[in-house]
Amino acid sequence: MVRFQKQRDSIIRQSHTRSKDYGVEPDMLFPKMILQEAELANLLESKKELITVALPFLQSLYTLLSGSGFVVMLTDGKGCVLQILGDEETLRDAAVLNMIPGAFMAEESIGTNAMALAITEDSPIQLTAQEHFINAYHRWTCSAAPVHDANGDILATINLTGKSTLVHPHTLGLVVAAVRSIEHQLRNNKLLDELQASSSFLDAVINNMSFSIITINKDNTIGRVNSTACKSFGVTCRDLVGKPIPLFLPKWSDVWRVVSRFERLLDEEVSLVGFPGEGRYVMNAMPILFPDGELEGVVLTFRDMKRVYSVVNKFTGMNARYTFDDIIGASESIRRIIDFAQHVSDSPSTILITGESGTGKEVFAQAIHNHSSRRDSGFVAVNCGAIPETLIESELFGYEEGAFTGARKGGRPGKFELANGGTLFLDEVGEMPIDMQVRLLRAIQEGMITRVGGSKPIPVDVRIIAATNKDLKEEVEKNRFRLDLYYRLSVIPLRIPPLRERREDIPILIKFFLNSKAIKLRKDVPIIERDVFQMLLRYEWPGNVRELENFIEKTVNLNGEILLDVKDEKEFRLKYLYSDPSATEAESSIAGYRLKSLEEVEKEALIKTIDLCAGNMSKAAKILKISRNTLYQKCKNYGIDR
């Protein structure tokens, strides 16, 4: 044991010496080498097979340690990070130090660490605290082991990193076990039965996977079932093992037709029957092949459609970002609306949000969703006025394979299914075609939808929030909107007041947008003169908060220059700038900038550009993106002598 410790200490000392020779400084924070986005994308594509094989094991390994402050990392054979999973706090700590996908953890990049030594020494190793070279890593303990390909070459490393106080020799044992599992699966073409036979750790990995796994024998009977499947389906292993798979999977003959040709069936939507957890799932089917090429069985994996839709919503932006804290305003009217919206957030009843364009109807819808018990499920928004009339039915309710020309193979879920368990936001609902209003009403009332080209009703649990800038009562009178749908949508009406009805919020919004846009555009916060500020307060803002936000963004982009997007700028100034000489305390809270006309701004731009180009008119015209003749004409008009 003493001899082993001395050998280990020697390895670490040698690594520290190499780190110094590489020019790594102890006070460094970031790896020297980090791939650019395009380079990382190319690397991930080239390592696709490795990542596909390793990722389930990384997830299972993290599952065992979830909540303990550890992160699991996969690098390639050169120490470049490919994947990283872990607790949020530790992931944030790692990201602060640029320990992210694309970063190289080799000695020459960041000094002594477990991943680098695992590659250099071709051996599992655990480093803790000061055994790392750079000071920033002294807070951690790292356990890493190399992954070998069939030829014995180092293909990757698996690493567990956590706080140094969590150091334990069993951590390295878990990593080594995971590495051995990955190597075994690579060598044996991902055969599930060999994975299960490799060790008790592999059984734990399979049972801790987040999706259901069922193996099918050559006689079409169920061989093995993981614990996730039992829980998801509401059965015990005894209820399934030995039973014919067609009893539970009506489409089995279609599945067998594919896998018997040694092909995979990926992401197929299927229905399972015959047990409490029956329903719709996304299924993968993979043949189990022995090394001699003989088909030994089939591996089926199932993911619940609700979970799949949740992931889809998360990564396609179909989620709610705004909360009530993001709604800016202190006026009595807006606070009253916020209080009311918070009070009804958790009600299952439909909400109809009305208000002029730009008042923030979707912001309120998202805030209501995030304040409800549905916050962990999807928020799916549909702009009823932006979808062609011929497509809106399939967009809302989905379609089955072959429902129409161009229909995607396997069909496609609609927005109702994607929002199952969450909130469906129907924006501009007043633009919905009258015939679609009938189907929408039925779906809301019955809680069931039927895909286009399908016949099987699909239950959906969706909270509806609709929004419109139209007067739906007037639309009803004109026979453009159904009265019964209007009453069904407006169970809880919510009217967002226009900006002109809450003028006391304008100074707050101006200040907020000045600061937020300056941060976004990486510019200084511009200063606005008092009289200009008064003008902004008096303006009607027909586009409401959206118009004000865009106006302030334009002002910040122009470093405080005010450009008025109106037909008669002179009349506008007379109306809003000089109509009232008095100013409130709020109006004087931002002061100090002189108004300039568009002509003044253009003249200054011409003079500055020509000066910077040392009088080279061709170069100045190119920068200004106008022709030389136009440049000369503008100089003549403005009296610029060049």
CATH class of the largest domain: Alpha Beta
Mind telling me which CATH architecture of the largest domain this is? 2-Layer Sandwich
Count of the separate structural domains: 5
Task: Give the DSSP E fraction (strand runs of 2 or more residues).
Answer: 15-25%
**What percent of residues adopt helix (DSSP H or I)?**
40-55%
**Rg computed from alpha carbons, rounded to a whole number of angstroms:** 32 Å
Number of strands: 17
Descriptors:
Beta-Lactamase; single chain; alpha+beta; about 650 residues; Rossmann fold; five-stranded antiparallel β-sheet; 5 domains
Report on the architecture of this protein:
The protein folds into 5 domains: 2-194, GAF domain (Beta-Lactamase), CATH 3.30.450.40; 210-306, 2-Layer Sandwich (Beta-Lactamase), CATH 3.30.450.20; 317-497, P-loop containing nucleotide triphosphate hydrolases (Rossmann fold), CATH 3.40.50; 500-596, Helicase, Ruva Protein, domain 3; 600-638, Arc Repressor Mutant, subunit A. The longest helix has 20 residues, at 2-21. It contains 27 helices and 17 strands. The termini are far apart. The strands form 4 sheets. A 5-stranded antiparallel β-sheet has the order 2-1-5-4-3, with helices on both faces. Strands 7-6-10-9-8 form a 5-stranded antiparallel β-sheet. The protein has a 5-stranded parallel β-sheet with strand order 12-13-16-11-17.
